[in-house]
Amino acid sequence: MSTNATSIMKRWDWRAIVFTVLAGLAALLFIMNIYRLTAPWAPLAWLPKDDPRQLNPELHRWHTAMWGAVSGVLNGGVLLSLLWRPRQKLLLIQYIALMVIVAAPIMLPFEPSLLIVILMVALVVIAYPAPRKLLDFSQDEPLSRPLLMFSLVAAVLLVPYMVRLELWQIQGIGGEHAIANQWVSDVEHTAFLLLALFLASTKRPGWRTLGILTGLVFIYLGVAALVLPNYAGSWGVTGGILALIGGLLYIAATIREARKAMSDSSKALPSVAPNIVGR
Questions:
Q1: How many CB atoms are closer than 10 A to CB 269?
Q2: Would you say 78 and 92 are in contact if contact means Cβ atoms under 8 Å apart?
Q3: pLDDT value at position 1?
Q4: Distance between CA atoms of residues 267 and 52, nearest Å
Q5: Full-model pTM
Q6: What are phi and psi of 218, to 5 degrees?
Q7: CA 252 centroid distance within chain
Q8: DSSP structure string for 168-212
Q9: Contact 162/191 with Cβ under 8 angstroms?
Q10: Nearest 10 degrees: CA dihedral of 138, 144, 149, 150?
């Protein structure tokens, strides 16, 4: 092996180490929010109150639940998955990159202090061991029609919800909810969910993980909405039922599509084998 090749391998090894450290720290930062999943059921004294603008934590149960689900389960789960063989999960790091691009214009006008968190996550993207692949959106498999259908239905139902909350935030409607920027926080988290849905439907490397995590978040938020139907920002009873059923069906569709992909690849092997033997 040449000296040049050895130096290249060492450089990539160090890049992988740096990425693992940064992704691990970011994963820990997000996964710490999992305790917020107790928000629909926790006694008032146990509810998190980490923002002095939230004078009454009871009002913010739904916001807290959504924060825990999207930040702790979806984003934390994606980052945790990237700690193992990140080069084989290109879609996951692209989700993180797009998450940064989506979060900045939504949140920074209202919460400039979040710039630190956004920059930290951006560093994870920059440190990715295969940076040239970040702009690779090529398709090895066709789009999943079932997952794309779920994504489009979710967008139709959730985009009006996001627009309404954004208007409330801009107009300062809702007292503490607007003062603590809870409306725009829900807009951001909903945008992450829609982003994950559409990316998973591409069936690019890492799509199974993204699909399962997104389905789990919808199931949880469906239950949370049924427990908190009248809380500010909640999806209500109808939305909760749709999210619960949709999440279950989305996971089932993800598993079915994954099995189909494995079956198709195994069927293709015999046709390739003779060519290899012939050579």
A1: 8
A2: yes
A3: 47
A4: 59
A5: 0.89
A6: -65, -40
A7: 18
A8: HHHHTTTTHHHHTTHHHHHHHHHHHHHHHHHHHTT--TTHHHHHH
A9: yes
A10: -100
pLDDT, one tens digit per residue, over 233-246 is: 999 999 999 999 99
- pLDDT tens per residue, range 159-213: 999 999 999 999 999 899 999 999 999 999 999 999 999 999 999 999 999 999 9
269 pLDDT more than 60: no
Q: Mean pLDDT over residues 136-148, rounded?
A: 89
How many Cα atoms occupy the beta-carbon half-sphere of 124 within 13 Å?
A: 32
Dihedral pair phi/psi, residue 164, rounded to 5°: -60, -45
Would you say the C-alpha torsion 69, 158, 251, 205 has a positive or negative sign? negative
Percentage of the chain lying above the pLDDT 70 cut: 89
- Alpha-carbon distance of 22 to 37, in angstroms, equals 25
Q: How far is CA 278 from CA 10, 41, 149, 268, in A?
A: 38, 65, 43, 17
Residue with the two structure tokens 């059921």: 41
Alpha carbon of 6 to those of 9, 12, 14, 130, 216: distances in Å? 5, 10, 12, 17, 43
- 8-state DSSP, 235: -
The first and second tokens of residue 221, run together, are: 């938020």
